[in-house]
Amino acid sequence: MQPPATPRPSQDHPTNSRFRENLSIYVPPSDLPIQASRFSPESPPAESSRTHSMWTTTATVRSATPIRKETVNFRSMETQPTPSYKSRFTKFWFDVRTLVSPREPQLVPIQEPELAPWPPLHIEKRACCHNCPCHSLQKKDSKKRKRQKIFVGILVVVILYLLGNSIALNTRVFGASSPPRNSADPQNATVASANTLSADAQQCLSQYEVNAPSNPTQYPCSTCLPVLQAVPPNFSDGNVQDPQQITNAIQFCALRAVFETTDSDGQSSLKDQDWVQDVRFCAWTGVQCDGSGRVSSLTLTFPGVPSLLPNELTALEDLQSLTVIGNSASPAGSLPSNFSSWTTLSTLHLESTSITSLPDNLFAALSKMTTLTLVKNGQMGNNLPSSVTGSSLQNLIVNSQPLSNPLSALSSSQSLQSSMKLIDLSETTISGIIPSTIANFTSLTELHLDGNSLATPLPSTFPASLQTLSLANNTGLTGPVQGSFCSLGNLQTCNMIGTGLSAPNGCGVLMPPRDENAFHESENLYAKATKAELERDYDRAFQLYVKAAEGFLHLSRTTTDPAFTTTCKANAARALERAEKIKTAKRDITPVATDRLSQREQLLVLQKSSTINGTFYPLWSEATSTASAHSAKQPALSPEQVGKSAVWRRCSHRPIADPEHPLAPQDVVQHVISDCSVCASVALCIEHSNRFNSRLGLSVLYPQDGDGVPIASADGRYYLRLFFNGANRRIDIDDQLPTYPDGTLMCMSTGVNQALWPSLIEKAYMKLMGGYDFPGSLSSTDLHTLIGWIPEYVDLTSPDFEMEKTWRKISAGFTEGLCVLTVGTGRRLSVDTINSMPLLPVHCYAVINIGDNADARTMTILDTWTGASSEDELGIDLTKLDLKDTRHARSCSLSWDTICSTFEGIYLNWDPKLFPHKLDLHSTWKKDVNDHTSYPRRFQVQLKIDHNSDGHQQRDVWLLLTRHVVDSHRMEEYVSLTVHNDDMRSGVVSVKGEYTNGTHVLVKTEYSSTDPVLSIVASYDAPYDDAGFTITAYACSPMRWEDTAAKLLYREKVSGTFTAKNAGGNPTLSTFMINPQYHLRLYPPKAEGSGRGSKGKLNVTLQGDRHIPLGATLVWSHGQRITEISNNETVASSGAYSYGFTSFSQEVSVGDYSLIVSAFEPHFLGSFSLEIDSSLRFEMTPIDQEGAGMFTKIIQDSWSQSTAAGGPNFKKYTANPVYKLHVPRQTQLIVRLQLNKPTPAVSINVTIFNATEKLGLGPHITTSGPYTDAVSGVVTPQIAVQPGTYYIIPSTFNPGVHTRFKMIVYSSASGVTASRSHLPVK
Questions:
Q1: Residue 14 reports pLDDT greater than 50
Q2: Can you tell me the distance from the alpha carbon of 310 to that of 262, in angstroms, rounded to the nearest whole number?
Q3: Cross-strand pairs, 1316
Q4: Is 1142 within 8 Å of 1134 (Cβ atoms)?
Q5: N or C: which end of the chain has fewer CB within 10 A?
Q6: Of all helices (H) and strands (E), which one includes residue 458?
Q7: What would the DSSP string read from start to end of 748-781?
Q8: How many angstroms separate the CA atoms of 993 and 1002, rounded?
Q9: What is the DSSP letter of 1253?
Q10: Phi, psi angles (nearest 5°) of residue 377
Q11: CB 454 within 8 A of CB 474
Q12: CA 465 to chain centre
């Protein structure tokens, strides 16, 4: 069938085609063979070679037609034309897509027989007419192509520009990834000149300008810093920016060295302050630059401080001020080795660092230095650089670090005399006197020497330019201020708080009129409180208001300015009013914690302790120059004086003191008053003054002349400075004294000398003690009040008394003038007379001389008692009696052996100058109204010593507890002082902390050099309300108090009782195992990641009656009862047993422990209270006693000569004591064997055997194990025993041991019996 012919279009037929060419179609001839279409149903499938597709591969074909597998035969394929770029690009992205996305099985198109090619179409192209539509389309396409070409051209130009710029920049900074070449190598670099840079310098500068701003940490400072520093200072290449950029790069590297030498915490802190985030270092916190962009000031504060000050820091050549505040450990080392580069440095401030020393030529190298501040640099040594005397220093501040007194050297320097404006050497442990050359300073305006150990006399003149003088808390400064001190025309502030200085004639400069800094601090607290209240943070607001009020009240009490006092009181009332309103509105407000160690709280304690025996005695620093209202009140007379018709008479006709005729100790006479200790104390002061010109005792009486000698008062009024209740206090008296009707003194007198000052001292002391009805005292207590020396008592009857050691100590101290002493008798005398001198019971004798030579060791003692009460009884005129006459001698010389055997005790007083450092703590034993127990009250605190901070190697610490006296007639107030150090590790069982009803307790101890911390417990037992006290620490190194009052999160308190059944005594006793024990289980914290390795703080406190010495021990265990303590198992211990109270604090791991509480001996019975504080959650349960709930049978017996057969190895084992055990029914059985007196050399064992009818002794069923000498004895494990008969054999390892033992048989069933039996010897 022929296809229909297609008519050929005519040539002139108008076309509407959108093609650009006009097509003409050629119709093939009719005889052309036509191949049938394969898509026709009539067409059968035909075989043909495969596809022409260039990317068809073998695959499974999904089709409606039958599936076949075939492989493309590339060799049979005809050569194909090369694909176009478009086809290749399309294929490439197709392949990429199929590689990236999951590929499905490729489908091979259905293959069909190849059709014969059709003849080519004959297409005739015609020219387009002007008005044809194709013409407009062609013009549009032409414009589009032109626009595309322009866009491409612009894009190419931009790309070429960027590429060229990048190449140029990379060429300039060639080698940026590698450090510059060494400029020192002439072959690698060109030396920089004033006009040109070396290649390396140019490279470093380019990197700083291009790369450093975006990546400051990668700039090669280690290489570039020395390269850029080698550039001449006058370098100029025509580019004004280059010299400044070189300077910037140098400063940047110097500061980055600081960043790189800090630890990770420091770097984090510095990053938060913008350090090394860019190169704009002038914007970094702590860095200040001048107008030229040069670093002029640098302040580094912990944690952003380096471990060592880097040498690169000296590259800051224009630095004028450097401040470094560390954490006492870093920075360490020394100043940079090339510190002399800081030629412009004028201010250096180093605080809390561990820098070891300052270069001796510091001031010679840094000639512009004007201010040096050194605070709390414990490792810096005791001396200032010697070059300081040649400098022009203006301000010298050294605080809270040891320093040898430099005042003489400083004031003798001609350059410093005119330049020095401020000297602050507070709390630097300097001692000695203020040199008279201090007046050489012509420009000095401020002098601060607070908290040191300065001594009198003060210089007669001070610099006329002085505006501020502070000598506070120098307890060695005593007496009146003299000379031009009060007439300093420019003096505005003078602080003498905490000294014994007084100003005669109303000098009016003893205290600062106002403390502006403290006032502003309190105002700031009030402002913060107001802000917190507005933010509805009422807890914080309440606390701040209270603290502000406390600050204002403290200022109101310590100022002499009436207007300032009124202002402070008004501000305090305003703050308290706001606090009260908050407390009223918010009932559950958090109470304000009291800082027990603050100066404010301690001052309040001293002020509260000013009322003594019903009379107020003000602090010496707070007393006015005029006599107080109560000064006219006379002390009460004693019954003896009243019985002898004592009369008060003025003694103005007697001299106060006669320097030309000094008193001798023998001049002091005691009369009817029972104050032998006071008379002996005055005699000792006279003896010491005669030997060392010390004026002990005499210097406490006022008024005084310019030499510090008491003078007669025109109005008969006198006042004394006595050290009582923790501070110097003022006692006002007049010159009236008790006399006999005939005018003879009925008080302490001085015989023919008639000097009045001892009588006035006695009167003031009797007034302080409540009157002449003196209950008696100790000379060491009296001398502590008169001269402030450290009291000590040596019990000559104590088994711990060391005769030789005590002699050496006393002899050396007395010879050097460092101690004075008396000896005292007890109630019973071994002899009535010694060397013709009568002895009195409970009497005090002054030791006025000590002889130590090869022949004898002697003491000369003096009895101040005359034995007569008036001149009638004595038979002579006391006012004409020469008491040094040997006919009336009341002294004798005794050997050291006689002293030790005759007297009961020695009362010593030591000069505090033995120790360079002294630290006081004033506090109160408060009565807890919620505590209904009768246990003593306690105060705990820690003393931390800065060992070796000032080069001292001695580790001795003396601690003195002083109970503040309210009523001197109270005799039932008991105090104790316990000090814990490393005695828990010593393994020695001892007792300390005995109670006494005396005023003072002295404890001498040593601290550990590895852990210089002492735990101190001061205890008080009396039926009275709050009682004040003072703890004074003396040491060779600086010290500080740390509070331990903070409580932990978890707490439990249990009560118990030591009874005859559970009081086992200390670990050296076999009964120790029966003491109360508790299973303590500590749980790990709930925080994620916490487990068995976690640790927490554990505080254990045990208290009881003051007569019971207590101890506590924590032992590793699984919660079972502990029978024996070994050092390996002990986790923590309270150390030596202490009366009424003990404690320990330890970091412990989570787990199970046994806590054992005990008294020192089994006979100490009474109740106790156990308190546990822990940072970890815990459970505490009592541990049952051994054999709890079981029947007990105790057998007391011994190994005798016939039964001490030893162990089985000695072949006579059955000769040991044998006990037949009858068990009527099944029972649980335990047997313990103990020696009545445990001996380390005796090891024991107990074994239980079956009993047989034939042999008697069958196989053993249990044993206590290997022979051991454990103090608690040995025990068999608990086992179940069937009814029957058994044998128990206790034995020692070695035969022949004759000693007593105790055997305890525990059984769960009744009816079990044990009786002595015998077995045949094998």
A1: no
A2: 10
A3: 1219
A4: yes
A5: N
A6: none
A7: -B-GGG--SHHHHHHHHHHHHTTSSS-----HHH
A8: 10
A9: T
A10: -100, 85
A11: yes
A12: 41
Can you state the percent helix, strand and coil of the chain, rounding each to 5? 25, 25, 50
Give the residue from 995, 913, 1004 showing the smallest Cα distance to 955: 1004
Under 8 Å between Cβ of 1290 and 1302: no
Give the DSSP H/E element, type plus range, for residue 99: helix 85-100
Q: Which residue has the tokens 């013009």?
A: 139
The residues with which 722 forms a beta bridge, in sequence order, are: 729
Query: In this structure, what are the phi and psi dihedrals at residue 282, rounded to the nearest 5 degrees?
Result: -65, -15
Amino acid at 830: S
Q: Give the amino acid at 338.
A: N
User: Which tokens in the block code for residue 661?
Assistant: 């005729």
For residues 1085 and 1150, give the distance between their C-alpha atoms in angstroms, rounded to a whole number.
9
Taking alpha carbons only, the member of 687, 626, 717 closest to residue 698 is: 687
Q: Which helix (H) or strand (E) holds 325?
A: strand 321-325
Per-chain mean pLDDT for the chain: 81
Nearest to 201 by CA among 215, 218, 216, 184: 184
Stronger pLDDT, 1 or 302, i.e. the higher one: 302
Map residue 1098 onto helix, strand or coil: strand
pLDDT at residue number 468: 85
Count the Cβ atoms, other than its own, within 10 Å of residue 300: 22
Which distant-in-sequence residues (6+ apart) come within 8 Å of 395 by Cβ? 370, 371, 372, 373, 420, 421, 422
**pLDDT top residue among 589 and 610:** 610
- Alpha carbons 931 and 1277: distance in angstroms, whole number: 44
Displacement of CA 449 from its chain's centroid (Å): 26
> Which stretches of 62-142 are assigned E, i.e. beta strand?
none
What would the two tokens of residue 587 be?
């009932």
CA dihedral 655, 657, 658, 661 (to 10 degrees): 120
- What is 253-277 written as a DSSP string? HHHHHHHHTS-HHHHHHHHHTTTTS
CB 425 within 8 A of CB 402: no
What's the pTM value of the predicted model, to 2 decimals? 0.61
CA of 351: how far to CAs of 260, 267, 285, 326, 337, in Å?
21, 20, 19, 6, 20
Enter the tokens of residue 35. 């191949």
Give residue 1254's Cα distance to chain centre. Answer: 75
Q: Tokens 């539509």 sit at which residue?
A: 133
Q: Say if residue 1112 is exposed, middle or buried (CB neighbours under 10 Å; 0-12, 13-18, 19+).
A: buried
Task: Count Cβ atoms within 10 A of the Cβ of residue 780 and give its class: 0-12 exposed, 13-18 middle, 19 or more buried.
Answer: buried
Q: For the chain, how far is it from start to end, CA to CA, in angstroms?
A: 140
Buried b (16+ CB within 10 A) or exposed e, 562-590: eebbebbeebbeebbebbeebeeeeeebe
**Taking 90 as the threshold, does the pLDDT of residue 1217 lie above it?**
yes
Q: Which residues pair with 372 in a beta bridge?
A: 348, 396
Taking the CA atoms of residue 873, residue 878, residue 881 and residue 887 in that order, the dihedral angle to the nearest 10 degrees is 20
> Tokens 């499905």 appear where?
104
Nearest partner of 453 among 1036, 911, 917, judged by Cα: 917
- Mean pLDDT along residues 404-427: 90
- 523: exposed, middle or buried (Cβ count in 10 Å: 0-12, 13-18, 19+): middle
| Residue 421 pLDDT grade (very low, low, confident, very high; cuts 50, 70, 90) | very high
Cα–Cα distance between 1296 and 1204 in angstroms, integer?
5
Rounded distance between C-alpha atoms, residue 1051 and residue 1038, angstroms: 35
Q: Which of 867, 870, 877, 866 is nearest to 644 (CA)?
A: 870
Per-residue pLDDT tens for 834-859? Answer: 888 888 899 999 999 999 887 789 99
Residue 145 has which token pair?
Answer: 């192509």
Nearest to 415, CA basis, from 445, 384, 440: 440
Distance of alpha carbon 770 from alpha carbon 613, whole angstroms? 5
Q: What whole-number distance in Å separates Cα of residue 882 and Cα of residue 889?
A: 10
Give the distance, in angstroms, between the CA of residue 1190 and the centroid of all CA atoms in the same chain. Answer: 52
